[in-house]
Amino acid sequence: MNRVMGDWKRIGARIGAAAIAAWFAITAASGQEWWDSSRDGIPDGSIATSLPHNGDPGGYRKWLSQRGIVYGLEYTNDVLSNVRGGLRTGTIDQGKLQGILTVDFGRLTGWHGLSGFANFFQIHNTGRIRRDYVGGINTIAAIEAVPTTRLSEVWLEQKFADGKASIRVGQLAADAEFFYSELSTMFLQSDWPTITAVNLPSGGAAYPLSTPGVRLKIEPGKDVSLLLTVLNGDPAGPGVEGDEQLRNRHGLNFRVSDPPLVLAEAQFRRNMGNQDTGLATTLKLGGWRHFGQFDNRRFASEEVLIGTSFGPDAIHRGNSGVYAIIDQQLYRPPGGDPQSGISVFSRMSLSPSDRNLINAYVDGGIVFAGLIPSRPKDRFGAGVIHARFSNSVHSIDPDTLTFTGNPVRDHETNLELSYQAQILPGWIVQPNLQFVWHPRGDPGIRNATVAGVRSQWRY
Fold it and tell me: For residues 263 and 60, what is the distance between their CA atoms, to the nearest angstrom?
């Protein structure tokens, strides 16, 4: 008991030090959209608005903003404990500092429609809650990653056709624009879906990895967007499964010779304006295609087991998936914005069973926002993830059980309950409780319970 209390005291001291540092220098946000709107160089929702001189006593930030340069820092910290089940119990402290820079070349050089973006991560932790303690495959805390400092995205984007189209070129992360739900972002487990994270080489171009590519976006109307991206298909390169973050530890591999990954997505919106009074809806339909080679899950496993070489039936050319996303507002308070009131969301996806570990995936949840008059910026809700192991895995596991002792895998399901409280603009605290059933799809691993708190600062 004394050892546990000592761990919590040390973790509390780290959080306190981080909070003090954040108050005076650094803070946090989530995603590029947070930086798209700023006043005098201060991004919306920044803690700088609560500091003397808007956190810019020398006026340098305003001076740069007037010339098209906006920068910011984010810091996110999680203290999470696996209190029951999983591989083992224990507590971790993890943090991610992100630096973000945007450049409007229209203001800076007169080249209108051209913009630039870059960000980096400094990741640190005392362990990884999903990998080291729970042992699952679904996300528990989206910032979990190998400790390092790494470059993430760096790109140039040119708008044309009166701003209705744009092309982006550089090092890209697919999860910045594809296959995500805006409503889900309040949850710690909101992340690149498990079905792509485990089926694509090196997990695909998603946090914390990115890769060179090009993205085209067309907006034929204010409520319709069409997106297409072509990316290098392996952000880390070949190697031992599970160490892709070590193979591209600093985000500087810049691989361009791997078979490509293509994603396409159509987005449809309704009542998304702040002045609209109807219920807000966002529908996204998409798919992806990887042009590399993929082992047949059943044939490859059987042939390795008996010591023979792969036959032609054990290799597939290409891999693919389809998905759908819905964000639906159920109740919009008078004068409320599209993110207020009561809303539900879901992401659903399928991939071929013969070459993938996970062939069916669904997540979803409900979010209550701005419903407490005295706490208009608070949110609370529940989110769930369900990842189903493919039929080929179901077929081979009973065959290999006698030789390997591995279990017959079925599914992994996560439930998250979360409350997001705004202490000040740009500073939130988020108590969190999660339950994990069948970690890694293994009924033999005890169901896990994870509890903790997230702190997030924005500057």
Answer: 40
Q: How far apart are CA 192 and CA 190, in angstroms?
A: 7
Q: What is the C-alpha to C-alpha distance for residues 102 and 322, in angstroms, rounded to an integer?
A: 32
The number of residues in the chain equals: 459
Strands 148-160, 281-295: parallel, antiparallel or unpaired by DSSP?
Answer: unpaired
Q: How confident is the model at residue 404 (pLDDT cuts 50, 70, 90)?
A: low
pLDDT at residue 399, rounded to an integer: 55
Categorize the per-residue pLDDT at 41 as very low, low, confident or very high, splitting at 50, 70 and 90: confident
Tokens read off for 308 = 């023979």
- In tens, the pLDDT along 175-228 reads 999 999 999 999 999 999 999 999 999 999 999 999 999 999 999 999 999 999
Hey, which bits of 188-259 come out as E strands?
A: 211-221, 224-232
pLDDT at 419 > cutoff 70: yes
Where would I find the beta strands (DSSP E) of 245-372? 260-270, 281-295, 315-331, 341-350, 358-369
Domains annotated on the chain, with CATH: 2-458 (2.40.160.180)
Cα dihedral 396, 402, 403, 406 sign: positive
**Strand, coil or helix: 235:** coil
Residue 446 token pair: 């005890």
Label residue 227 exposed, middle or buried (CB < 10 Å: 0-12, 13-18, 19+). Answer: buried
Distance, CA of 369 to chain centre: 21
Continuous H helices in 203-290 = 244-247
As given in the structure block, the two tokens for residue 337 are: 């914005």
Rounded to two decimals, what is the model's pTM?
Answer: 0.86
Supply the mean pLDDT for the chain: 87
Q: How buried is 279 (Cβ within 10 angstroms: 0-12 exposed, 13-18 middle, 19+ buried)?
A: middle
Beta bridge partners of 450: 82, 434
